[in-house]
Amino acid sequence: MLPKAVNNPALHRTDALLAWYFVIVWGSGFIATKIGIQYAAPFTFLALRFAFGLSCLIPLILWLKPPWPKTHRQWLHVVVAGLLMHAVHLSGTHYAQYLGMSAGIAAVILALQPLATAMIATGWFGERPTHRQWIGIMLGFAGVALIVWHKIDIRAMTMGSLVAVVTGLVSLTAGTLYQRRFCPAVDLRSGALIQFAASLLVLAPLSIAFEGARVNWSWPLLGSIAFLVVLASILGVNALHTLMRRGEATRVTSMMYLPPIFAVAAEYLIFGVVPSAISITGIIITSVGVAMAMARKALPPR
Q1: Distance of alpha carbon 16 from its chain centroid, rounded?
Q2: 56 near 117, Cβ under 8 Å?
Q3: Which tens digit of pLDDT belongs to each residue from 163-214?
Q4: Distance, CA of 135 to CA of 114 (rounded, Å)
Q5: The whole model's pTM is what?
Q6: Which of 16, 160, 168, 288 lies most in the core, judged by the most C-beta atoms within 10 Å?
Q7: Cα 159 from Cα 13, distance rounded (Å)
């Protein structure tokens, strides 16, 4: 049984901090990935990422001694969720970038996740998004499309990259909901170690078989791996799971609309790229949509 959300202001503030952390790291992750796959193909890059992740987690686990899944079934659920969210999802999105899909098309396709989550959560968890939340989901998607409109290039899309990004979308949606459904009480620290190990066992052979495990070692590669492992795969994903355990799936995944806004802000601050009027309009629409989708349902009168 999943815990019910409580009307606790302190908890809501913590959730807000976790949400913004996730959005910032998730948005930055696309840039770090773009850097990393210049030096190692996706399967190889991900194998290095999870190997480094294990080297970070093992000392931490030995020190903290968190509880482990108690049954073989729990272990299986943790592995399945991890392979979906880490191995399959990241392989799909990384290969989409590697094969040249434009950032705009990838952003629009991945922005379908809140809609897919809302539809699945309705039947799987019995959640019933309000009319306001459904409108917010639609507005969020429309806003993202406007934000990245100038980056949409159909000519840069191949069938391989399309299959890859759709695979990433489906596996992330399924993985986050699967973990919430079947691993609601699993310790996130030991769970992360299990999921990293399972992902490495799958990706390392793929790296050798299809990419020759070739790596052009460089400081940018090492920096991107460190950023993605520590800030995204460990802290960012755990922030997402914590939020999923505390709140409704539709509300939480609506945050996925926000990384493109962060990317626009980063381009402006770092590279001086001024957003177009269409992008600014998209930012406003997306912000309104997310606010509507994340609105908490009114508590029934006592």
Answers
A1: 17
A2: no
A3: 999 999 999 999 988 998 899 889 999 999 999 999 999 999 999 999 999 9
A4: 12
A5: 0.84
A6: 168
A7: 43
